[in-house]
Specification:
The protein is mostly helical. 78% of the residues lie in helices and 0% in strands. The chain is built from five helices and no strands. The radius of gyration is 12 Å and the shape is globular. The relative contact order is 0.15.
Length: 73
């Protein structure tokens, strides 16, 4: 999906990513957060927050928290 966003744009990648509906996977929500960033930062934040809650390791949580912190920086 990330490659699709680079070739066809974020909007198309969001549509395709949301079709996957991997609601128990923190990588899925991290991807959606990245795709929504700069298009709709509220949705980006919501997805990063979901990713943070689903992340199991300290490292993953730290990485996602940095994305949240940098969203409005």
């Amino acid at each position: 999906m990330y490659a699709l966003s680079k070739t066809n744009g974020k909007q198309e990648a969001i549509v395709e990513a949301e079709k996957l509906n991997l609601t128990d996977n923190h990588f899925y929500f991290t991807l959606l957060g990245e795709l929504y960033k700069d298009i709709d930062n509220t949705k980006a934040n919501q997805n990063f927050q979901k990713a943070f809650l689903l992340a199991k390791t300290k490292t993953d949580k730290q990485t996602i928290q940095k994305k949240i912190d940098n969203l409005y920086a």
